[in-house]
Description:
Elements: E1 25-36, E2 39-50, E3 54-58, H1 65-71, E4 82-90, E5 93-94, H2 102-108, E6 109-112, H3 123-133, H4 140-150, H5 154-157, H6 170-182, E7 188-192, H7 200-213, E8 218-222, H8 226-232, E9 235-243, E10 249-258, H9 259-264, H10 269-275
Parallel strand pairs: 2-10, 3-8, 3-9, 6-7, 7-8
Antiparallel strand pairs: 1-2, 1-4, 4-5, 9-10
Helix pairs in contact: 3-4, 3-6, 4-6, 6-7
Amino acid sequence: MTSVTSISTLIPGNASAMPTSSARTVMQLTDVSVFYGAYEAVRGTTMPIREHQITAMIGPSGCGKSTVLRSLNRMNDLINGARIQGTITFHDQDLYAPNVDPIQVRRRIGMVFQKPNPFPKSIYENVAYGLRINGIKDNLDGRVEKALRDAALWDEVKGKLNTSGLALSGGQQQRLCIARAIAVQPEVILMDEPCSALDPIATGKIEDLMHELSRTFTIVIVTHNMQQAARVSHYTAFFTAEVDDKQVRHGRLVEFNDTGRIFTNPNDKRTEDYITGRFG
Length: 280
């Protein structure tokens, strides 16, 4: 296959993160298909999630990126009729085994959504909320401060912790939601289009924050922004939507590799066509 060198012109600084070759696999998807009732939304996904690395999922609308993301902490369980086939493991434990509590799964694998969704509470109580419902009552002040510091928000809000979180700017609200997610110290953070509602300056702050957070957490991000995937991620999974002989669309993982390889010399022509703008 011809090397896709032209993509480098689309990536400011061509600054994709370098993966750590020794990073261990903390989650593993093996032949995972996700169904809504009888409809198979995504089929046959096999890929690893590696520790302290940022994994990006890219692809056109309707290819199943967010569906796969939500399966990683059993958020799809909240949708009537949703189920999976295949296996998702976390530290070699089957996340969908009968004895696994999905609430505990979501505590260890946190999530940040596309649109900032702070609670109608003070900044302090937004961060403390998850701590309280998880029964963590000691040193609340210190834990809230640490989460806000880790989310690069403390210096901007330390004098107004009793102010409503809804009074913050969009970018600040998203960092507040990140602080809320990390306050309970999950191991993995899932981010579903976390910058799509933000301006470029706020987006840059979130991207810088992701790099810092990956030192402590494992991050999986869904993004439509290929430049963002190239800038922030160590690994990239490209999904597409296929139409079967009954004219039904199904999402499918086409290729998983380190981000530099995906964006400069992908193995599959469908990946090359997508990242060079020939479709999608």
